[in-house]
């Protein structure tokens, strides 16, 4: 007999669970009216690639809550969300959507809807999020959108949307996010934007040929946190720095390509607030180093990300060394000649305070100077990304073993570094030391033992010796470029361990012997370029049998002999084949005429003619 206390407790639990069970009975049960509305919506569509991208939308599947892209309320079963982004649909957006009276999220981006935006959307006042981006709509945004007073977010960065920015958008006073980016709009940004006092995110990047005549409206957006105005001309906006500083919660500001160099008076001498910015982007504005005096009030110890690329800067100010929270400094592609000792000095009067800096890009800046070991020893933190490429920096091969964090990216390419490479980080993910003057062996590769390495480029140096037989560590390696060096000897068997390898470039070296049979395991290869070596033996039949993904196969200027194997004809994707300047004999297989992919020009390389010696 059950204990009475246990029975009472069990009964109470049953009563507690019963409402939940009852609620579950209506989960994912849409009404007939809403299912019919969706089917009517589909009937006005066509798939732009002649395939049914909504196969689950069928009349015999009664529960539309299980249809792809449809979300229902768990309690009521009403359709609340429709996400058809990226379905390549085209045709008419049916007004049957009006029958989805509980729909509050509508995502139709990434399709090919065209014509004007349907005016009935303005009647869908329950919408909270509307995304019509990346379509083929034309004309201006219809006035009916202004009735969506409860809309929380509106994205209308349509591919071909043109016309001026309509002022009635400014009546959507409940908006939290507005995105008009990547359009063909033109004209003045309406100052009535200042009415959108609840905005937290405003994205106007590359909205078209737009300009700002008066930026004061921004000061009314006290809830603004993220502001993107890339490509919007601010050339006439004096004191714009003051306006930015008047927005108390702003933490992300992006003004790339805003013609800031043309502003006569970026800020007034009276500044009554401090910056809250965490991310500041000022790239592509033709700015010179004179800009640092007005950038100063926009920086603080909160700043983590600073993007100054594509300007005319010749150095950095000393105050950057005081930004203790700075994590990312991106300074590439500045056209003025940088005095590297001054740059390093300004980065290092306070470098020890930059304890969070992990991303540094000063590539392509015309730096002509020498880097000493002190540069590598001074970092208070471990770098995850370092790019010094495309300068004229010289100096002995640095010790790259201690200054870098896990999965780091190191790019010293196209400089004048020299000497033997002795140490590298054991956890590096990408290593580019190409086009320098490094010499000596490459046994340092065996120090990389943690298996995250995906990219290695040591080409165009003076490296010598053999490729070490320790490649089994590199299970994730996708690109290995050792071209244009003095490497020699046979390829090691462990090269077959590179199962993710997509590109193997060994051209212009002194490698010899037959190609290892283990390379047949590298089934992800798309490019195999071995020209100008001393490889010998028959052209391996396993190339055609196992490396079916090859697009490029170049074996020219080696010592291969024998006939061309018929198995090469299985390389259906091959677009470049070069077997010239070898010791091959016999006839050219007629099946090579079946390389139909060679008729399609994809790679930016000239297709070499196959010749016989």
From TrEMBL:
Residues 1-22 form the signal peptide. It is a single-pass type I membrane protein. Residues 32-73 form the Leucine-rich repeat-containing N-terminal plant-type domain. GO terms for molecular function: ATP binding. It comes from the Eukaryota. GO terms for biological process: defense response; response to other organism. SMART domains: LRR_SD22, LRR_TYP. Residues 96-335 form the Disease resistance R13L4/SHOC-2-like LRR domain. Keywords: ATP-binding, Cell membrane, Glycoprotein, Leucine-rich repeat, Membrane, Nucleotide-binding, Receptor, Repeat, Signal, Transmembrane, Transmembrane helix. PANTHER family: LEUCINE-RICH RECEPTOR-LIKE KINASE FAMILY PROTEIN, LRR RECEPTOR-LIKE KINASE. This is Leucine-rich repeat-containing N-terminal plant-type domain-containing protein.
